[in-house]
Amino acid sequence: RNLKWQIECRADIGRLSAPFLAIYESLIPAEEEKAKQKKLLTLLEKLVCKEWPDARLYLYGSCANSFGVSKSDIDVCLAINDSEINKSEVLLKLADILQSDNLQNVQALTRARVPIVKLMDPVTGISCDICINNLLAVVNTKLLRDYAQIDVRLQQLAFIVKHWAKSRGVNVTYQGTLSSYAYVLMCIHFLQQRRPAILPCLQGMEKTYSVTVDDIECAYFDQVDKLHGFGSRNKESIARLVWAFFNYWAYGHDYASNVISVRTGSTISKQEKDWTRRIGNDRHLICIEDPFEVTHDLGRVVDKFSIKVLREEFERAAEIMQHDPNPCVKLFEPY
Ligand code: CTP
Ligand code: MG
Predict the structure, then answer these.
(1) CATH number where 187 lies
(2) Whose CA is closest to atom 29 on ligand 1?
(3) Is residue 141 lining ligand 1, measured as CB closer than 6 Å?
(4) Nearest ligand to the C-alpha atom of residue 216
């Protein structure tokens, strides 16, 4: 297995960048979509403020982290500064308010892992999930957005990887494959590891931004406009990076011993995190450390069946990137 990690990249990799870039461009949301999202957020703010004058609404997830493709739903967090609240009651009340304002398909899912209200706005056609006080998600959304400002190859790689994962059916957490958030962290980690590095480790630098959320200190260097050109000594093309990304996850990553960690800009050992055996439902078969909630392994959804599916998909993608005459077609073929 590990011998393949040493293989040399195909000689014609350069000619593959144009079609990958064309796919990336086609996935970028139009400006008018962003405007519609803003409009819906403003409407929601107006409705929410009547009931909870001190509450705030934040966008998080792909609509705010720079990794959203066009026609995505939006994720909203309602922040209520009161530790006494009962989330279910707030969600039911919120659903009531939204329903009486002509929003459609309003549903309160109070027993979900992350309880939310779902709705669809008939004016903009946008669907939306609203959660309560999930501020860590708002902060990790900012971290991802800040990383995206540093080198455009992150956004390109992540769009391609997310598009691949959706096409191949390996972006379904309830089936034991990985979340989009996990794939983006895998891309960031991968670009931190290139030599020369394409991305820095923001949490390892001077802390210019710091908030404490749920007793977790979230701090890092967020003046990313000063980091423009950070990765410019590395000239790797997007096709070469896609090739190397899949090679890494197919043949290079040490699944038995290593955890990838954006927080440290490196890999750390499973031993060190005590992620060496199954505890409850956490099996740690592929380990991706959350940058702030460091006890959280984003690979914990993966089980002994889905790890096989995932690794076979990484190998399939690596093979296609190495040998297929037209990888941009084959890579994204529906499964
Ligand atoms: N999130 C998190 N922890 C997880 C999964 C998600 O904190 N285990 C938060 C992150 O802030 C993430 C957001 O929830 O940005 C949305 O997650 P997800 O749906 O996986 O990512 P999106 O970027 O919204 O991707 P998609 O385009 O597939 O909707
Ligand atoms: Mg989402």
Answers:
(1) 1.10.1410.10
(2) 62
(3) yes
(4) 1
Are 181 and 247 in a shared domain? Answer: yes
- CB of 239 closer than 8 Å to CB of 159: no
Domain for residue 146, yes or no? no
One domain for residues 199 and 309: yes
Nearest to 141 by CA among 28, 63, 57: 63
Mark whether 192 and 325 lie in a shared domain. yes
Percentage of the chain surpassing pLDDT 70? 99
Q: Note whether 213 and 88 are same-domain residues.
A: no
Q: How many residues are recorded in the chain? A: 335
Residue-range definition of the domain harbouring residue 159: 2-27+151-330
Q: Name the DSSP class of 207.
A: -
At residue 125, what are phi and psi to the nearest 5 degrees? 75, 10
Distance of CA 77 from the midpoint of ligand 2 (Å):
12
Per-residue pLDDT band at 69 (split at 50, 70, 90): very high
pLDDT digits (tens, 9 = 90+) for 89-142: 999 999 999 999 989 999 999 999 899 999 999 999 999 999 999 999 999 999
pLDDT of residue 82: 87
Closest ligand to the CA of 68: 1
ipTM of the complex: 0.98
**127 shares its domain with 165:** no
Nearest CA to ligand 1 atom 23: 62
- Identify whether residues 101 and 16 lie together within a single domain: no
Q: Ligand 1: which atom is nearest the Cα of residue 173?
A: 20
DSSP letter for 228, please: T
Ligand 1 pocket: which of 175, 181, 183 to mutate (most atoms <8 Å of CB)? 181
Q: In 3D, which of 98, 146, 147 has the Cα closest to residue 122? A: 98
Ligand 1 atom index nearest CA of 62: 23
Does a structural domain hold residue 145? no
**Atom in ligand 1 nearest the alpha carbon of residue 73:** 29
On whether the CB atoms of residues 245 and 258 are closer than 8 A, the answer is no
User: How many domains is the chain partitioned into structurally?
Assistant: 2
Nearest to 205 by CA among 192, 187, 191: 192
Q: Whose CA is nearest to atom 7 of ligand 1?
A: 137
Q: Are residues 112 and 166 in the same domain?
A: no
